[in-house]
Amino acid sequence: MSNGIPQIEPGLTGLDGHEAARRLARDGANELADSRSREGWRLLREVLVEPMFLLLLAAGGIYLLLGDVREAVMLLGFVVLIIVITILQQYRTAKVLSKLRDLSSPRALVLRDGAVRRIPGRELVVGDTVLLAEGDRVPADGKLLTCNELAIDESLLTGESRPVRKQLGQAERELTHAWAGTLVVQGQGWASVTATGARSELGRIGALVDDIKPPSSPLQQETQRLVQRIALVALVLSLLAIALYGLSRGNWLGALLAGITLAMSLLPQELPVIMTVLLALGARRIARHGVLTRRLDAIESLGETTVLCVDKTGTLTQNRLSVRALATPDTLGWVNAGDPLPEELHTLLEYGVLASEIAPSDPLEQAFHAFADSALPQDRRHADWALGPEYELSPALPAMTHCWRAPAQDERILACKGAPEAVIELCRLPPEPAAAVMAQVARLAQDGLRVLAVARGRHADGEWPATQYGFDYEYLGLIGLADPLRPEVPDAVAACRQAGIRVVMITGDNPGTAAAIARQAGIPAGHIVTGSMLAGLDDAALRAEAARACVFARIQPQQKLRLIDALKTNGEVVAMTGDGVNDAPALRAAHIGIAMGQRGTDVAREAATLVLLEDNFSAIVTAMQLGRRIYANLQRAVIYTIAIHLPIIGLALTPLLFGMPLLLAPIHVMFLELVIDPACSLVFEAEPSAADLMQRPPRRQTSALLDVHALWSSLRQGLALLLVTVGVYAWTLQGMGSIEQARAAGFATLVLGNLGLLFATRPLGRPTRTLLWVSAITLTALGLAVLWPRLAQMFQMAQPSAQHWLWIGIATLLGLLAARWLGRSNQPAEVAG
């Protein structure tokens, strides 16, 4: 099978889908109990302790003391409405995050309905037959049915750091069982699930990490600092307002109410909500394109990425390997599936298959088996041979040997395959034949083929040697496999280069193959650094090569970490793809670790911040574009929030300073908050990317969400709206209307100016459907508050005259034009354009 799904070993059976569904309904999901069931109460508790909620309750109490029951009831109504809206909004965000957690949870390969399927680990049930492979977390407790060099790290449960080598037919239960949560560090095996979820050994210990809160990201910390500073300013100004009102007017209850109104207008409680909602909805938007976000703070770094390090196989290529060429020392033959294979090449393919797993999960070995099924006669498949010891490949020796016993000849047969350099070394070829082999390798690599060498040998009865160097091998030849480039890769690489992102290929393949694929993908391949070259470089020389080269070949997994560190030392923001156990350190070290969802191990997924569902390179580029879009919209939302709060603060403070009647009461501030919250989160999240977003260089890592330019732009926009609103209020108050009409005129100008500010902050172009809906609902609510007599009376307003509406419209238009001009002239690069 393809995509890393192994063939079914003989004798294994699995559940059918209907029985699995029945057991899942009976026993529940294979997961530990978590705190998500308590989220409703947690959200309610968080809302009840919000400063805005407490200020509303205080204002309602003051209205009751003043004998204004209607105002108090109106405020309490707003309290209930805000609680409902806030909880619904946060619950929606929590549901999005919960779905993302479920999608990025460990997967399992299970035998169902006679076929191997990849399912979420939570859907496993007792009786399932599940595959355990190197690099995976064991998804449930199970009894081993088969094991092939299987070793499991059980330190999570036992504290013992040494892996346990599993063996069938042993009396010790520890050797014949696997436990949920432990890590497969070597080999593979099939197990029958015996316990899931809370009934597993891990479940009995308990989910100790469930309530551990992850540390705040840099963006969260920046937002928290901003909110704390503004809250301190709000407290000081509110105390000054109370003193000013009380001393000048002698009404201390009214002074307290004015101070509460000012505090409510100052508190930017939307900022943490904006950040959480935009990042969560952005993560869901990215997930629609096949990229799961395991941590929301990864979105912060997407727009900063300057270097993207990618593997070749499965990322740039399709990971659909097929045998295309076989070469002996005397013959080079190009083949296709179904073509007859010359007899002189039978032995080469025969031993290539013998050096592979019987039921392989690796696409390369699957390609060997698939070609052999059509090209080799049955007597060359050796179904009756018994597999003995296996010598796995290692970073020091990238070759593997399988030892077989042939019953008919009563012989010990060796089959070896691996990197040509390693097999040449094991066969101890003299310099001249070795050079001829490497010339054939270069010829095959020019066509982008992945090349492996094959050797055979015999071993006399007696002790097996400790390493492969203890055998005598006979060199047989080379096998070249084609893995075509993904058709979307050249355009995606070009898009990265246009966006200022350097694409670097890091592969274990030989330099010739790497160079051929790099040229097809559009990656510069004029200078290639190999693993052996890298090993001889000191840190300074490696940093120089990391800045120069875009192709690294024959790289060992442990060298990836050193390369990532060199790029980071050069000041690059690094994203890296990986799939294996040995990739985990480098994935964790990179600013953005990207794990392969199809062929990636659980260890790689746990170390990464993003997971590709389809192992598709173009999805990475799309995620980077969406990351830039999310951050740009987040900046717009923050600029808008600061800008709209300035006129609200000014309208709460100006009447106190000039002895005018108060324009805003708590009820008016609450009306505005009901407009601002959805505008911040929903309107800006829905804004599309700027047309030239991927033509701009990456955002600097040191740039702040709200830098000096953005803050100045925001303050100027807010000041323009404040001057217009105060002007309309003062002009109406000075002789053209009653206090109630002046309040209505000023309030209507402020609300219309708020909508204008939404349009001024967003890019030019067709408004989104979300913006139009928010505008329509806001205008309807404003019309009811001003024109419906009963509601207008509650808001202490009276209907303005036609002349008032004319001036309101003119002032709002002027304010919109001024805000647009002031806001466009000096915005940060991320939102400009």
Ordered list of secondary-structure elements with their pairings:
Blueprint: H1 17-27, H2 39-48, H3 51-65, H4 69-103, E1 107-112, E2 115-120, E3 129-133, E4 141-153, H5 155-158, E5 164-165, H6 173-176, E6 177-178, E7 183-195, H7 201-205, H8 218-249, H9 252-266, H10 270-287, E8 291-293, H11 297-302, E9 307-310, H12 312-316, E10 322-327, E11 332-334, H13 346-354, H14 363-375, E12 386-391, E13 399-406, E14 411-418, H15 420-427, H16 431-445, E15 450-458, E16 473-482, H17 489-498, E17 502-506, H18 511-521, E18 528-530, H19 531-535, H20 539-548, E19 551-553, H21 557-569, E20 574-578, H22 584-589, E21 592-596, H23 602-607, E22 610-612, H24 617-658, H25 666-685, H26 708-736, H27 739-761, H28 769-787, H29 789-794, H30 802-824
Parallel strand pairs: 9-17, 9-20, 17-19, 18-19, 20-21, 21-22
Antiparallel strand pairs: 1-2, 1-3, 3-7, 4-5, 4-6, 4-7, 8-22, 10-11, 10-16, 12-13, 13-14, 14-15, 15-16
Helix pairs in contact: 2-4, 3-4, 3-9, 4-10, 4-25, 8-9, 9-24, 10-24, 10-25, 13-14, 16-18, 20-21, 24-25, 24-26, 24-27, 25-27, 25-28, 26-27, 26-30, 27-28, 27-30
